[in-house]
Amino acid sequence: MRFHPLVMAAALTFSLGSPASIHGVPFVAQQSVADAAPGIDARPFPRDFTQNGVAFSVHQPQYDSWNDNQLKGRFAMSVDTGTRADANGKPEQTADYGVVTFQARTQIDKDARAVVLTDMQLTGASFPTATAKQAQYLELARAQLRQKSTLTVSLDQLESALAIAAVDAKAPASLPVRNDPPDILFSTKPAILILVDGAPALKPSGVAGVQRVINSRSLLLQQGGEYFTYIGSHWAKASSLDGPWSAMVSADPKLTQAMQQAVASRQVDTLDKPPQALADAFANGGMPDLYVRTKPAELITVQGEPQFVAIPGTKLSFIDNTGADVFVDAAADNAWYVLVSGRWFTAPGSKGPWTYVAPNRLPADFARIPPESPKSGVLASIPGTPEAKEALIANGIPQTATVKKAQAKLDVAYDGAPQFANIEGTSLQYARNTAVPVIRVANDRYYAVDKGIWFTASSPTGPWTVATSVPPSIYSIPTSSPLHYVTYVRVYGHDGDEVYVGYTPGYYGTVVTDNVVVYGTGYACTPWVGAYWYGCPATYGMGAYFGWNPWVGWSFGWGWGWYDGWYGPYSPWWGPWYGPAYSYGWWGGGAAAWNVYGHWGNAAVRGTAGAWADPWTGNVGRGARGGDYNEATGGRGVGRAAVDTNAY
């Protein structure tokens, strides 16, 4: 299910009408301006309503088809269901999520470039985890619709949205991804995974006699034939990157100088404020195990020897003293299963060898995991379960914002002259030697995405202005391209100096395949290594830990280990990671599903609506299997069913 949001008139039926423009779609109802003006609903999506004492929200919708005079589409809807007690006994809001379909009759006024919608009908609803209440929830939406059932939308905007919808329709519901097993490392004591993007590329550090591996976000220095790293205010050394690594009491002043220069220029992250588990590991001269890998890898840390807990009603057990999802199936000769980046892998034991298991080929017991189980979060990664269906809906709910064209600015820095490469299966090209995704549509037409906003220019070096539309061809970029993630960023419309935009979780790296949501396409690409390093979107090695939970929504976490481990690097090189972005492409902070529009500031962006994350507090990783990184405080946490954490 590839649920891309597009501007759609049906949701605007939930607005009171008058000559105005909401998300770039001017509309009028069959009444006078004077009568209706005070009732204009110009809120961004999601929009909140109450019918018969029940609160519900309508999310940014999409079109499905426009045949003859019949327009059809759908939109996500969430219904408040009260509160439940979290693991600490505190109340938290709960909701049911579903999709409502609609159709309307259209009348076209080409002179006015407008389409009048009449005979609006909500034709059905699907709420995967609340099937018994579907009819009740559909009636809530219909009751709201009956208040205003006629409106007018922009013909130009409708045609543009449908052109993109046509591209979406050609895409398979299940997108192709690569599922090659990563190097899965198990550790029963504190450990750190340091990733290098391919073969180590040594470059002068700026200090005589010291070189730095530039294609890693972790600090790796070489001096006198030995390697050094600095993590959590502690030095370690090894004769080779493969180790073994040992702690150092002190380091050569030249190493310290090279480290300080790299940190000051934000080319590396040394985790100067480590999580408590890592700080404890360093206490009293201790040293966590260090693993350096130059290919996709995942580190799973266990607090001591594994403690297995049986899952009632199944032959499955899970390891309780790790935040990772690790299972043993007694019905299959005690085979091990792990869930990594939304993908399932199996092996005879913890040391492998690991092979990929398609989600529809998992042992049947996995779908029998009780919803109240501490491991119920994995149900979102098992096709056909209500949780998986709800995750698909959640993956299509966008965050939206209103952008002021005069305020949002973009400058693109290249490592030398712009160098473009073909995007497979399209007529498009992308710039390889910049951290910003720059796409060449024609010799005088360029598009780029920065923090959820599309920009356009006639030259790869600018000047860049906020785009009011995006060529449909961009949305055909396949999963094999490192730029696939930009296809989840949309322009919904514009009005004067304001442009209405949004993005779905795909912008963070999620992909729908085999009827579940996974993280990353799995396709490798050749990173740019020149004076600077620009890597590719990572699937493994990021410690991607995410899931959908009907109680708290969509949760993401990257870049650190489960409980005891820490993953480096914790900031990828492509994607909507917040800036500032330097010439070599460093995206500061970490990665979590916060609202990237919040980083533009109120002067450039307003009306942001966080449909699946708290856009301001950073407290975003509270769901089943959800990790969090708080952009403001640097706090880290981990969440899974029955485990409650707070980013602060």
Structure description:
The structure is a single chain. The chain has 648 residues and is mainly beta. The chain is 10% helix and 34% strand. The chain is built from seven helices and 44 strands. The strands form twelve sheets. Strands 3, 4, 5, 6, 7, 8 and 9 form a seven-stranded antiparallel β-sheet that branches. A hairpin with a 2-residue loop joins strand 5 and strand 6 (70-85). It is globular and about 75 Å long. It starts with 8 loop residues before the first helix and ends in a 10-residue tail after the last strand. Mean pLDDT is 76; it is low at 1-43, 548-554, 558-593 and 610-648.
Quick structural summary:
The chain has 648 residues and is mainly beta. It is built from 7 helices and 44 strands. Helix content is 10%, strand content 34%.
The structural class is mainly beta
Stretches with pLDDT under 50, minimum 5 residues: 1-43, 548-554, 558-593, 610-648
Helix percent band = under 10%
Could you describe the largest sheet, including whether it forms a barrel?
Answer: 7 strands, antiparallel
Q: What is the CA-CA span between the terminal residues?
A: 35 Å
Give the quaternary arrangement of the chains. Answer: single chain
Kindly report the average pLDDT value: 76
The total beta strand count reads 44
Tally of helical runs: 7
Radius of gyration: 25 Å
The coarse overall form would be globular
Q: How much of the residues is beta strand, in percent?
A: 25-35%
